[in-house]
Amino acid sequence: MIAINRKLCWVVVFLILGLVLAGAGYTMIHTATPVRIGVLLPLTGDLDFREPLEWAKDTINCEGGIGGRQVELVYKDTGTGNPEQLAQELLDDDSIRIVIGPDTSDLVYTLAPRFTEKKKVLISPTATSGDIIRAFGRSGYVWRTTQGDAAQVKTILTILKERGVTRVALLCENSTYGKTFYDWTGFFATEYGIDVTYIGQFEPGSATLDADVEAALDTSPEYLIAVSFADDAATIQKTVARSKKPVRLFFTDAAATPQLVQLLGPDAEGIEGTNPTADPHSLFIENYTAKFGHAPENYAAPTYDALLIAALVSARQDAVFFEPLPDSVRKVVYGDGVVTGWDGPGIRTAVREILAGRLPWITGASGGLEFDEDLGVDQIYTYYSHWIVQNGTFTSLKTFSSEDVSANGKSGGASVGASTPSAGLMTVSSSPASGLPRGPRTGFSAVIAGPSSGWRNYRHQADALTVYHLLRSAGVSDDRIILMVYDDVPTAQENPLKGDIHNVPKGTNLRPSAAIDYTGSSVSAATLRNVLTGTRTEATPVVLESDAGTDVF
User: Same fold for the domain at 32-147+301-362 and the one at 150-281+385-413?
Assistant: First the structure.
């Protein structure tokens, strides 16, 4: 019996020793395995993404990497290769789970579903379309280190308002990038008391761009806000200069590249605009300039931060086995423990904390790295540089923050891009920008128009019906509401609940009790004009009846 027990003891000892050696072997092998992070960005052209990425990588590795593992960047140059093919190479590489990029909003829309399907994370430092947060929010696989462009619109109009500007025109390229400016400029301008004399779109590289610029200038704005990349920006500037009209130009971040100065030469002097920049309190710009001998280019800070987040998420994955990758991203960006910075000591502290299972509040070169609490994807504030071209270089005049954030703790909240333009107005100002003195109120009327048609515009018709029911529940009678809805969604072939339309899943059917005045093809601009002006015709028998004391919604 004693011999058996001794044999059993030796068996247990050898098993334990084997497990220890196996664990040690795994640790040695794992420590020797690099943390591979993909980069899907243009490495040739105006913006130098490689420089800030290499600096971030070297800083992380010099501080011991991720628990001894060195960070390795796998570059795919979308400036010289097909972006979709290069993306597929990263998708097929099982050693890569996080990719920095792509650079454009259109590519995010194209690639994000494929990365989500493969359970890989994209972190874009430059894709700024305002719709990205609504398209990919809550998935956990799409993130970016700068806000959507609704915040840039707000910043531009803030600058112009401070100058006393009262009339602006907007000309933007017809793209995913340009759409945000097209959607938001009118809303913020109205709130700021600025008259938008013209809003137009053009196709990038269009042969008729000169005519589009002239049409905007004919409305006599003080400023023309131009949303385009450098080639078209140069055409716009030349057209404005030829016109001899006293209209000043204001460009967005897409134009702020050395190419613009090269195309215009001396004529670039005095051109101004905005672009995302580093947090002025982080000293990133000063340290970058000292290291490389020149100031960082656009998006250097968000690019640096994209790799910082990717590396720290990798640390979290090492610390907590089997945690889903989106959950690891959320844990890292929503941490509120010890505050860590973007430099060497800050990175070393952040990695140490995360590997120990704690969640520090990470801050980056671009700011506090605070993300929308509900949807993720977006930071809730971004710093913008107001720049001007002087002596052939982009010179920063002033830095603006898109939100006023307390430095004492995490502010929480949502990105401005997470809301619709009309809802976004509510956060801008609590007082009307302009208007005539109000007389006594004698009545209330409402006109609600949902002119979009087709199944893909379900939410537009649902929104119109929702507003109708909100007014009815507030006591507004049907005879004071004019409702215009195309009304083809309830009977659409794609609708599994025939006759139904809802604004929330499993909610109340909004259609049966709604008294709709105009449907189908009668929901038109001509009908709306007659309704608002009180012009009764055979086709428009129901019109707005109001006087000077009527509040019209």
Answer: yes
Q: Taking CA 485 as the corner, what is the angle to CA 484 and CA 488, rounded to the nearest 5 degrees?
A: 155
Q: What is the pLDDT of residues 256-277, one digit of tens each?
A: 999 999 999 999 999 999 999 9
Higher pLDDT, 524 or 223: 223
What CATH number does the domain located at 443-552 have? 3.40.50.1460
Residue with token string 């601009």: 525
**Mean pLDDT, rounded, of the chain:** 88
Rounded to whole angstroms, how far apart are CA atoms 258 and 256? 7
User: What secondary structure letter does DSSP report for 66?
Assistant: B
DSSP for 428-457, please give it: T-SS-SS-PPP----EEEEEEEE---SGGG
- SS3 assignment, position 22: helix
**Is the separation of the CB atoms in 533 and 520 below 8 Å?**
no
Q: How many DSSP H helices and E strands does the chain contain?
A: 17, 17
Under CATH, which number does the domain 32-147+301-362 receive?
3.40.50.2300
**Predicted local confidence at residue 4, as pLDDT:** 55
Looking at the predicted structure, is the pLDDT value of residue 428 above 50?
Answer: no
Dig out the tokens for 248 from the structure: 């000043």
Is it the case that residue 253 has pLDDT exceeding 50? yes
Phi-psi region of 342 (alpha: psi -120 to 50; beta: other; left: phi over 0): alpha
Q: How many CA atoms lie within 13 A of 83 on its CB side?
A: 21
For the chain, domain boundaries: 32-147+301-362, 150-281+385-413, 443-552
Kindly report the length of the chain.
Answer: 553
Could you tell me where the DSSP H helices lie in 192-229?
209-217
Angle formed at CA 186 by CA 184 and CA 192, multiple of 5 degrees: 105
Give one word for 312, left, alpha or beta, with left for phi > 0 and alpha for psi -120 to 50.
Answer: alpha
pLDDT, residue 451, reads 87
pLDDT tens-digit map of 316-341? 999 998 999 999 999 999 999 999 99
Gap between the Cα atoms of 150 and 188, Å rounded: 9
The CATH homologous superfamily of the domain defined by 150-281+385-413:
Response regulator (3.40.50.2300)
Task: List residues bridging with 144 in a β-sheet.
Answer: 124
Structure tokens at 246: 């006293």
Residues ≥6 apart with Cβ < 8 Å to 389: 260, 261, 268, 269, 270, 271, 272, 395
Q: Where does 277-382 have alpha helices with state H? A: 284-292, 300-319, 325-333, 344-355
Q: pTM for this one?
A: 0.71
In angstroms, what CA-CA distances link 112 with 108, 142, 292, 478? 5, 7, 34, 45
